[in-house]
Design brief:
69 residues; mainly alpha; 3 helices
């Protein structure tokens, strides 16, 4: 039950990270929306590898699902 709730939160955070990276780029120092999404993901104890992969998908470095705002 706990894992299901955590997975639901992670999915929502990954979508936000991906969209934020697509809109403003993958540099969190130049993209305040991405910086906020990263802080939220770290607050939810999301692994750094998942955060990096979501950002790379948003910038096009990795293939993946296309999320639009």
């Amino acid at each position: 039950k706990v894992d299901a709730a955590r997975g639901k939160i992670f999915t929502r955070l990954i979508k936000e990270l991906t969209v934020s990276a697509r809109i403003g780029g993958g540099d969190s120092s130049m993209n305040p929306r991405l910086r906020t999404a990263i802080q939220t993901a770290k607050g939810a104890n999301m692994p750094a590898k998942n955060i990096d992969n979501a950002i790379k998908k948003g910038t096009g470095e990795l293939p993946g699902v296309v999320y639009e705002k």
